[in-house]
Amino acid sequence: MDVSPLRVAVIVGSTREGRVGDSVGKWFTGRAEHREDLVIDVVDLVDFDLPAGLPEHPTPDMKRFARLVDEAEAFVVVTPEYNRSFPASLKQAIDCAYDEWRAKPVGFVSYGYRSQGLYAVEQLRTIFTELHTVTMRDTVAFNLLDGTLDSDGQVQAVTTLLDALAWWGLALRDARAARPYVC
């Protein structure tokens, strides 16, 4: 059994000008970085030039994104909710990798108005299920109308999400080491 810290990629999914995602991502990673069982790497989609359509051959940024997905052992996706869905930039990034996602856990931090981004998360769950990941039941979700990030409930939600992500991440790490994943 590998006892090294779990490598977690926190994917900031919005690339919109004036976005809140980078602030939410920083808030989340600020809490996650205190854990000794995790190593956090922020993967902000604004730092990638991903094409609007998938070309016949991957671009350098598509390859770089897929490599980061491959190197990570678990993921936390920070997503807004736009019109009851998640942004196209996030879908495009997800599609830049395929096998690299398999047999790894995915957690969600969402934000939006009233529904707290939970419609976006439910759609993402179906996509990540197709990619053979394990999605975490509990999420961290923010209603942008009330403007609070640091409530006791939110801090507890982060702990709950990361506890589950760490358990699944370590279990799946051991399973992948014991035998190759087959679908």
TrEMBL record:
GO cellular component, one term: cytosol
NADPH-dependent FMN reductase-like domain mapped to chain residues: 7-143
Signal peptide: none
Molecular-function annotations in GO: FMN binding; oxidoreductase activity
Record Pfam families: FMN_red (PF03358)
InterPro entries according to UniProt: Flavoprotein-like_sf, FMN_Rdtase-like_dom, NAD(P)H-dep_reductase
Protein name: NADPH-dependent FMN reductase
Source organism (scientific name): Amycolatopsis keratiniphila subsp. keratiniphila
